[in-house]
Structure formats: structure tokens, C-alpha cells
Amino acid sequence: MLSRVAASFYWLSRYIERSDGMLRMLKINYASSQDTVQEFTWEPVIRIFSGRDEDEDESAKLENNSRAVLKYMVIGKSNSNSILNIITLARENARGVQEHIPKDLWQCLNEYYHAVKDPRLEKSLLRDDPISVLDVLIKQVMLYYGTVEITMERGEGRSFMNIGKYLERAIQSVDILDAKFGSVSDNPDLLTDTSYWKHLLLSLGGYELYLKTYREGFEASNILEQVVLNNDFPRSVIYSVNNIQRYFDRLKNDSNLDDFREMSFRIGRLQSRIKYSSVKSIEQEGLHLFLTQIRTELYGIGNSLNEHYFANS
Amino acid sequence: MQESAYFDKYNPINGVWDEMYGLDANVRDHYRKVIEYISGESADDLNNKEELAKRLFMSQGITFTVYNSGEGIEKIFPFDIIPRIITAEEWAFVEKGIKQRLTALNLFLKDVYHNQFIINDGIVPIDIIYSCPHFLREMYHLQVPYDIYVHISGIDIIRDHDGTFYVLEDNLRTPSGVSYMLENREITKRLFPDLLPQCGVRSVTEYPTILYKNLLALSPRQIHNPTIVLLSPGIYNSAYFEHTTLARLMGVELVEGRDLVVNNHKVYMKTTTGLQQVDVIYRRVDDEYLDPLVFNPSSMLGVAGIMGAYRKGNVAIVNAIGTGVADDKAVYVYVPEMIRYYLNEEPILKNVPTHQLGNADERAHVFENINTMVIKKTNGSGGYGMLMGHAATEKEIEDYKLEILKEPRNFIAQPTISLSAAPCYMQGELQPRRIDLRPYALYGPDGIEIVPGGLTRVALKEGSLVVNSSQGGGSKDTWVLA
Question: Among partner residues A2, A103, A106, which is closest to B270 by beta-carbon distance?
Fold first, then answer.
């Protein structure tokens, strides 16, 4: 497979996964903003998902205005990480590999793109029920994943897609945990605020699993355990890293053993780092420090892919 | 026969050949079934069909992007739902004519890049060849496989007021539009279910198969599974959709210049498992940008060293480099002579009478009758830089004349030709609009094959004679009857 094509698969998939995470996060946060008597702050969402070098004044202005945040995050042209901008990038990547993806998948991406571009969307986002709008877009992502599952050839391309998907997902879960637990250390009252934890779980789609696993109510350490260490939770960090490894292993090929070994080493190291941690050990060394290390390792994997597989060295 | 309301309201243009409206004021036989079919449909039904066509083009991403004001705007190539129909006899004539013309043009290319008999015998003047910017000395005495230069051509055919076919221009470099021939047919199947088999329309789906077979035959390495690639300038090229369609239909790799690298006079592509040798390149990048070491040094679209690999015979390039000398509009004038010279036959398809402005007498004649002339640049395409004498203002004409006088060899003039008209669906009724025809001929070791069909371009603006998509043109599905 062409290196450029592999890179496009990887980025296509990262962007779609990112849009999925963002849409869910926005939906839950909006619902949560309707459910509180205090002023609702969007600051963590903006911090996690908008481009990091954004103008700080602008996001400060947005913080408490739900509609303005939604507009900025979904269709904001100036926000390099808005749904509109990342789906455009996803589509450009797909366009460059059109002959490698099933026609159904290309059509599905086109529809997603046109749904975001639709001028009626802006109007409903600002005037009607935003949850319906976000639901329409979330459906588009589900349609995408369904189409990939049914039509995509089980080969190298899909492996690169899955590596991208799980890398993005792991980074997202790490970022969300870091932001949410960071707010707690600034404001210890949140520790006992059940709706705070409930919304965190809902935005990761892990609420129901949590209720089934833990009977004693919301405990920060249980949430940490589920999101970092639970192998059965599809958005946990360990689950994502295991899948990166699983799909990376399929790329093994006699003609590039050196590149393979180097990458395999990195992924294995990260996997062990998480696997042989416990909530206790993480709390001892400090959650923020732990998450920062994991994030650095994840970025490192992205960089080595670039160097060894995408011919961008 | 009971005529439909659509037909009764139809006003053919005076003095223009109409593909549907016969001289006896009746529907021509070959259009009858289609007219019957649509007369059973209300204007609402037809509007819905038009809407459906637009939606299908949009959701399949059959769009080109216009980049301005920093934001990409997606546009579809306008499509008219009423097919253009060609009878079996008409097609047989056109097909024969194109085969003859293409054979002669290919022999001409071999000749000008080798012994130049045609120049020495005084058939084509030497200055016409050597002043052509597309005549590439780099190709001199370079052997191409099977002596085929023009593997893919799109020769533009038009019809005059009496229905006679003429060749308007020969596109022998990287003619585009064939994906629209294929897609228009797919859309038409959806718009008019069952109508195609009832009318006996010949299929065009063989095109990618034939092209692939020809590309495969050109591989310099005699191995069972040579690597064939389609080289595209990238996603910002207006024909990118076509490149992906063809790559997908043939199952070949779509590459960009940055995916290829030359080592030891061999071309390789960069893959996730290292370098893989490339045998055949169907390139959609112009000669000028193909190799920065030999041609335009600032080109980012090509591959450094690819000409060296080509000269060594380690890679086949389709179309061959330097074919532009044969579709130059100043050389066009000599094509009937070439056919007589190389084949000892009379040309089947006529040329449009053409004046070369490099010749002082002809120039004077053209300037006197400029209102009845169309003036074109010899190396122009896409309908850019043309002067339509009958529609231009006094000032435009004067400015254009000054430009001609700077470099008269670069201009030709043709009398305004009356393109034939075909019915188009416009706001609830049928109206005549001017059309041309571009069939795609594939030249391989087994000879020339032309899929029965082509791209019919249509000037959608009322009264317009310019069919180019960049100038407000659209397209129609093209039916060749069995």
C-alpha cells in the first residue's frame, strides 16, 4: 500500500473518531446545562476540543453561552477543530484514497459532510433543539462505522484506520479524564457532586456499564478504574491501546522488519505501563503525571508511524 | 402518431440541424421512443428526475471544487436529463472516420519524432512543427512500445446545418470527461428505468476493461502482474474525480508525483512495505510538469528523473510524451493531407475550414470578415482565449487583433460553425440547445477500439455556441443505438 494512502486512512479515521467524541461530549454537556441552577461552564469542553493555540479571550467570552459554544464547536470556521473543519479534512483524506475505499463509504462521508454544511443546520443549532441537531450528526458517524464494518476490505487499509481510531480514542479519554479530574483538584466540592460524575460517564458512553459494575454510587477512584483500566469498556485507555497493538501486529511483513520492531516496542511498552498499573499506584504517583506520560507515549506512537510507515521522515 | 405536448411546443432553431426534429416537422424515428416515454410524464415528474440526478451527483461526490475566497465551493457539472441519440449508421460512419484519422495522426507522430518524411516531402511546413511549443526534442528518436503514441484520444466532432460531421479538434494529450460518459449512463439508468433496453442502447461499460487491457500490454517487464498506476496531479485538480473513478474501475493504484521516486532509471512507488517498481504509468499530468529535470523545473507535480527511465524503456507512459504537436490547431489544418500521405485514402471526416493567421493573405481575409469568424489560440483549450466574431464588441475585436499581430502563428480562424441542436429539458419544456460529441478512442497493440458512446457537451445558455464546462456548458448521456 502507498505510504500516502496509509497516512490518509489513518487521518480519515482519527478525524471521524474525534468528531464522534466531540458530538457526544457536546450533547451531554448541553443536556447538563439544562439541568443546573448554577451558571454552566463550557470551559473544560473548549479546553479539550478546540485547537490549543486559540485566542484565549475568545473562548472566555464563549464559556457561558451554550448556543455560541455550539456554533463555535460545530460550524465555527475559525475553530480549526470544529466539526465542520475536521469533517472537511476527513473527506479530503478520503478523496485522496477514493479508489481504496468502498463506494458506499465514500457516499456516507459525503452525506456527513453535506449534513454539516447544510445552511439549515446553523439555524436549528441556534434556534431549535440542539440535541436533535447533534443526534442527526451522531447518526451520521454511526452510519459511517456501520458502513466500514460491512464494506471495508479486511486488509492493511483497515488496520491503519483502526490504529488511527484507537489512538485518537485513547488520547481523547486521557484528555477528558485529565480535564475533569483537574477541575476537581481546583474545586473539591465537585468530588461529591453526583451529576458531575454522571455527566462525565455519559459523555464517554460508560454510564450504564458503571452502574452495573459498581454498586456503591459515584466514587472518583472507580471512575478512574473504569476509564483507564477496564478492558471491557470500549472507551477505556487500556482497551484502545490493546486494539492499537492488535491492528499493528497485522502489519508485520518481511520487507520492513526493522520498522515493525521499533514500533512494536513502543506500543508494547505503553501497553505494559497501563496494564501493570492499579488505581492505587496511579493515585500514588499522581494522576496528572500518569496521564501526561501516557499522552506523551501516545503522541510518540503517532510520530513513529509518520516516520516509519508514512514516509514523512 | 400522437405527438406529445412537449414536442408540440418545441421550436427548432432556424437553419440548424436538429437531432430530434426532422425536416418533415416530425420526431425523427430514433427519438420517438424517448419522446413517447417523457410524454407520459408530467412536468413535476421530470422536475423530480432532474432533482434526483442532482442529488445522485452530489452524494456520490461527482463534483468539482471551485476555490475562491478561501472556501471550496462544490459544484456539479450540469447534466441535462434528455439523452442525445445517435443512430447505428451515424455511429458506424463516425467510428470509421475516427479510426482513420487516429491511425494517420499516430503515424505522423512517429514520423516527426524519427525520419520526418512528411516534412522532407513538403507536406507539412517545417516551421509549423518547430514553432509548436508541444514539439519536444526530448522525444527525438525515442522508441515507444508498439509505435503507439496516442493510446487515449478524445476527438471532438460537431455537425453542420445539413447534418454533416466535422472534426472540430483532436485532443491527443490527456483528454478528460470519460468518467462523465460512464456516470451519466449510470444516472440515466436510474432516471428512466427500463427505457435503455427498450431502445436498444449499446453499453459503454467496457471502457475501463479495454483501457486496462491496453495498459497491461505495454509493461516493459514480462511478468504476470506488472504494476500499473494512474498519475494524478492531486485532489485540487478539477478532473480528480475522473482520476479516482478510472483507478477504481481498473483496480490500479492512484498515485501523485510525491508517491513516486526514480532510482537507477527505474520508477518506484513508496509503499508501507518499501519501494515497489512501477511498469506502466497512465499519467494525467501534462508533459510540461512531468519531469522537473527536463521540463518545467518548478513543477511539484512530476517525478524527477522519469524521462530518463522512459528513455531507457524501463517504464511505459500513456499517452506518450510530445503528442501535443499533433493536436496543435496549426497542425490540424494538415490532417487531411496526412491521411492522404500516410494512408493513401480520402479523409472520411471533414476538417472545419481553417485559416492560419501566420499567413499574411489569410490573415487579411480573416480581418476583413472577422464578424463571421471564430478565432482560437493554437495551443489553447477549455474555451479560453477565444474570440467569437459575431458576438464580440468593436473594442474586443481591436484588442484581439493587436494580440494576434504580436504572434500570428499562434492563432487560427474558422468560420462560425453552426453546431447541431438537441432537445434539453428546461423549466418544464423541451428547448433546443447546441451540442458537440467527444467519443473516446483507445489505441492498443490490437488496434483502435471505440466504446459506442462518448461525452455530449451542451451549451446550456440559450443561443450560446460554446459547450466548454468552464464557459457554462453541461453534458448529456449519449446513446448509440444497436
Answer: A2
What span, in angstroms and rounded, lies between the C-alpha atoms of A133 and A17?
18
A313 vs B: CB within 8 A: no
Report ipTM (2 d.p.).
0.71
Per DSSP, helices labelled H in B218-356 are 240-250, 287-290, 306-311, 324-327, 329-332, 335-338
Q: Is residue A90 scored above 90 in pLDDT?
A: yes
Place of cell 515507444: B144
Assess contact for B361 and B313: CB atoms under 8 A: no
Read off the pLDDT of residues A240-289 as tens digits, 9 standing for 90 and up: 999 999 999 999 888 888 889 999 999 999 999 999 999 999 999 999 99
Residues ≥6 apart with Cβ < 8 Å to B390: B371, B372, B416
- The answer to whether the CB atoms of B248 and A95 lie below 8 A apart is no
Residues of B in contact with A6 (CB under 8 A): 272
Q: Is B231 on the interface with A (CB under 8 A)?
A: no
Chosen from B63, B230, B270, B272 to mutate, greatest number of chain A CBs within 10 A: B272
End-to-end CA distance of chain B: 23
Q: What is the DSSP letter of A216?
A: S
Judging contacts by C-beta atoms under 8 Å, the chain A residues touching residue B259 are 2-4
Alpha carbon of A22: minimum distance to chain B alpha carbons (Å):
24
Q: Angle at Cα B319 formed by Cα B315 and Cα B320, nearest 5°?
A: 65
Q: What is the 3-state secondary structure (H, E, C) of chain A?
A: CEHHHHHHHHHHHHHHHHHHHHHHHHHHHHHHHCCCCCCCCCHHHHHHHCCCCCCHHHHHHHCCCHHHHHHHHHHCCCCCCCHHHHHHHHHHHHHCCHHHCCHHHHHHHHHHHHHHHCHHHHHHHHHCCHHHHHHHHHHHHHHHHHHHHHHCCCCHHHHHHHHHHHHHHHHHHHHHHHHHHHHHHHCHHHHHCHHHHHHHHHHCCCHHHHHHHCCCCCCHHHHHHHHHHCCCCCCCHHHHHHHHHHHHHCCCCHHHHHHHHHHHHHHHHHHHHHHCCCHHHHHHHCHHHHHHHHHHHHHHHHHHHHHHCCCCC
Residue in B with minimal Cα distance to A157: B272
Number of cross-chain residue pairs from A and B with Cβ atoms under 8 Å apart? 62
pLDDT digits (tens, 9 = 90+) for B423-458: 999 888 899 999 999 999 999 999 999 999 999 999
Distance from CA of B244 to the nearest CA of A (A): 6
Q: Quote the pTM value.
A: 0.83
* Interface check B353 vs A, CB under 8 A: no
For residue B65, what pLDDT is reported? 65
| CB contact (8 A) between residue A256 and residue B273 | yes
Chain B environment of A4 (Cβ under 8 Å): 256, 258-259, 270
As a whole number of angstroms, the distance between CA B58 and CA B68 comes to: 20
CB of B239 within 8 Å of any CB in chain A?
no
Tell me the nearest-neighbour CA distance from B111 into chain A, angstroms: 38
Mean pLDDT of chain A: 89
Q: pLDDT tens digit string along B375-398?
A: 888 876 656 678 888 788 888 888
Question: In chain B, what are the domains?
Answer: 353-415 (3.30.1490.270)
The Cα A118–Cα A280 span in angstroms is 49
